[in-house]
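anyone seen this seq b4? input:
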Amino acid sequence: MLGLLAELPRVNCWSIAEQVGDRTPDGMQHLLSRAAWDADGVRDDLRGFVVEHLGDADAVLVVDETGDVKKGTCSVGVQRQYTGTAGRIENSQMSVFLTYSTSRGHTLIDRELYLPESWAGDPARRERAGVPSETGFATKSRLAATMIARVLDAGVEVSWVTGDEAYGKDAAGLRDPLEERGQAYVLAVACDYRVPAAAGSVRADEAAANLRKGAWQKLTAGAGAKGQRFYDWARIRLHPSGKPGCHWVLMRRNRRTGETAFYRCYSPRRVALTVLARVAGRRWTIEETFQTGKELTGLDQHQVRTWTSWYRWTTLAMLAHAFLAAARSQNTPPPEGLIPLTRNEIRHLYVALVLEPAPAATTVLAWSHWRRQHQHRARTCHYQRRSQTPP
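predicted toks r here
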């Protein structure tokens, strides 16, 4: 944990071990792969810690995925697939995360690694990567539903769930399970989502174009980096057969460009349009959490290949981020002329004022010797393989 917060230029087992004064990375690698501890138990403790420090009646769970670009094919779950991190199809590892978001702050509280069908059906690759025998293929929406159920079953009070189109389009995988639990949601859908009309059904963008001017209201989606984020909002009430509760298609129109986004919404009871707009605006918190998690706690800098190591590294990185989020939530209003302490500034102060000084010279020299020895061994093995390969 100290290494994850230590402002290292690159965060991995080697750099962390050197930072905390170990002579080799063996201990850190053992911690992530073979040591006896329960990453899911730590996850549950993390959830309790987050709720204790950030808990609020307006809590929203935000689900989204992120991808880590990888070389090779040995890291668990890696294949060529689209990742928003790169904005294109890349050799990457995908995972689904859950952010707990309130007015007091936001941070990650759960995670699941996405195992593609190409991996789920390959016993040899599964065995090499240590994938548990009971783990099969599950869509990202199913992974999201599993994590949300875990939070709700733990007794955490959650007012809403929100996410992007990848989750809003999946009725059977996510929307239906949430409705069965009476859990309200605001999930994005595509512009071609079908909306009931007098003559059958129309696309959501066509329904938006046919709304009268008075149906739109100027409302805020919440505060952003540059102040309140105002959009024009409208909604259409839906009456799906046999489904209790209130259902809507929510529409958000950019006041400058006219670009419109759409959401499928459900609540056990009637709520105001302002509430739906506020919840839809909370989705940005997971994007900000991904950014700070990767920049400040090494969420994406793991160099692990196996199932167990991925879950352990990710859980510890989440715990480090939760520490920063909790510390930020305790801040008193800053003096005039100063912004509140940011996560970045809190980490910097923690490193400068709390963490122990740099390792002794003998430790630094020992690490130089270890690296050179490791590199010599790797180079020798590489040359041997090259010499045995026929021209």
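Residues 38-342 form a domain with the Transposase Inhibitor Protein From Tn5; Chain A, domain 1 fold (CATH 3.90.350.10). DSSP finds 14 helices and twelve strands in the chain. kinda curious what u guys think
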